[in-house]
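Hi, here's the filled form for the chain we discussed.

Project: internal
Contact: R.S.
Residues: 326
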Amino acid sequence: MSVFYPIEYLARFITYELFSISNNSYFGHALEFFIYDTIKILILISVISFIMAVTRYYLPMDRIKKVLTKRKWYGIDYLLAALLGMITPFCSCSSIPLFFGFVGAGIPLGVTFTFLIASPLINEASLFIFPAIFGIKTTIIYNFIGLVVSIAGGIIIQKMNLERYINQNFLKFKTKHAIRGEFENNRVPTLKLIKDFWIDGFAITKSAFPFVILGVMLGALIHGFIPENLINQYLNIEEWWVVPFATLLGVPLYANSISIIPVMEVLVNKGVPLGSVIAFMTATVTLSLPQALILKKILKWQLLLVYFGITIFGIMIMGYVFNYLF
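And the returned structure, exactly as it came back:
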């Protein structure tokens, strides 16, 4: 049973029982998705922001940041971020709360973007469903390239020194020194700490709320929409431009990997080149317009464009590699 099952049940109850909407209707599915994803993302942002507030108070974040940025990790920090992304079962929007938390904790920008790319790109579907449908060889190659794309994307963003394109107002928190100063450096009451941690976390949730609503609303309208006729018509063409076309076609859409893999299987069985199908699927689950709307709260458009550009380029490379090998 999914940890989010109570939210799924609540979304279904409100949609189909309370509002008596048909469970076979487009509006019913859209409303269920909107309720489910809105509650899930807001809970994730609140919980993760609270945990990060506690972490900032009790751990020497400046020292940790210095260790992560000054010492040579030889890429291990990026690999760990990519592996964390691999084991977190998030779609392109659900991974954002943890990304917010990492940025707020002062973790190097490149490492946080490695996680953001990896989380929807390499996940439980590519690990456990791929082997049954596409075989072990395809699964290993896909996840290996996914790791490389995630790590390379993070390293490139780190080398570009784009920290100035983070919305600093989003990252203003009450420091440990300020909290203890209110009590003349004496022991701070536990209830006072919990209250301050909650205020810090809620401030982020409140600030992100309009962007979450707008992003999920758009996601609900386009969720699961796969233009199969368009895909069948153009992705069967064996030309160099098909992989970029498939990638750009998938970017605006919004779906999780589990829901889109059956479509992939049908397309591959119809003879559509595997690389073109993977480019479309990967772009659909890794990037989306709803994700861009939510990220815009913390990222300025320059950094948002760099993130989308690097990820799109990596997805295209993945598509070309699979078309060449298969």
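Let me know if anything looks off before we file it.
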